[in-house]
Amino acid sequence: MEGTRVSGHPLSLRQVEDILFERGIDICHETVRFWWNRFGPLFAAEIRKRRVQTHSFSSWRWHLDEVFVRINGERHYLWRAVDHEGEVLEVYVTKRRDRRAASTFLKRTMKRYGQPEIIVRDRLRSYRVATYTIGNADDQTCGRWLNNRAENSHQPFRRREGAMAKFRGIKTLQ
User: Fold this and answer.
1) Could you give the C-alpha distances from 147 to 41, 92, 139, 166, in angstroms and in order?
2) For residue 99, with 0-12 CB atoms within 10 Å meaning exposed, 13-18 middle and 19 or more buried, which class applies?
3) In a 3-state reduction of DSSP, which class is residue 124?
4) How many other C-beta atoms can be found within 10 angstroms of the C-beta atom of residue 119?
5) Could you tell me which of 24, 30, 69, 148 has the fewest CB atoms within 10 Å of its CB?
6) What angle separates helix 29-53 from helix 13-22, to the nearest 10 degrees?
7) How far is residue 20's CA from residue 32's CA, in Å, rounded to a whole number?
8) Cα(164)–Cα(28) distance, rounded to whole angstroms?
9) Per-residue pLDDT tens over the stretch 90-114
C-alpha cells in the first residue's frame, strides 16, 4: 500500500506483495493496487471523521484564502479554509468578496469545527472586519508567505478547472 509507512519509508506495491507472501497469502501486486484504490479513500475518510469527532482540531491553525472563479462567464469567489496539515476544512462560493461573505464563511466554518487557536489570512480587509465582528480579532496573523498552505490547496482545483475548460455550475465547482 503506497501510503503506508514503515520506519519512515513508504511501501511499494511489490513490497506489500512480498510481505503478504511471507505470511502465506499469494497475490499479485495489481490486486494490492486495486485494494488501495478501492479502500484507501474509505480509510482516509474514516480517519478524518474520527479526528473531527474527538474535537482535537479546535486548537489547530487555520489558513483562509479566496480565489476568483468563473462560472458560466460570471465571476464568483471560492472561499477556502485549510488546517495546518493541508486538509481542506470548508469551501464556500459567493458572488461577493465583502465583510458579509467573509463573516458568513467564518461562522459556518466555526460552527462545524469550533474556534481555532490562530487564523492565518492574507491582507484582504474583509477577513479583518469579519474576525472583529465574530470576536476573534486577536487570534489572527497576516504575513507575506504565511498563507502558502491555503494557496497551495488551490493548485489541484486550478488544474481541474483548466481540464474542464471552466465550470458550468456551482454544483460542479463544489
Assistant:
1) 27, 18, 15, 25
2) middle
3) coil
4) 24
5) 24
6) 100
7) 10
8) 35
9) 888 889 888 888 888 888 888 888 7
Q: Using alpha carbons, select from 92, 94, 89 the residue that is nearest to residue 75.
A: 94
Q: Which pLDDT score, from 0 to 100, does residue 21 have?
A: 93
- For 5-70, give the DSSP string: EETTEEPPHHHHHHHHHHTT----HHHHHHHHHHHHHHHHHHHHHHHHHTTTTTTSEEEEEEEEEE
Selected residue with higher pLDDT from 53 and 23: 23
Please give the radius of gyration of the chain, using alpha carbons only, rounded to the nearest integer: 20
The C-alpha cell that represents 51 in the structure block? 479526528
Distances, alpha carbon 116 to alpha carbons 16, 82, 88, 113, in Å: 39, 11, 14, 8
Task: Spell out the residues 6+ positions from residue 47 whose beta carbon is closer than 8 angstroms to its own.
Answer: none
The whole-angstrom separation of Cα 71 and Cα 45 is 29
pLDDT tens readout for residues 14-45: 999 999 999 999 999 899 999 989 998 888 88
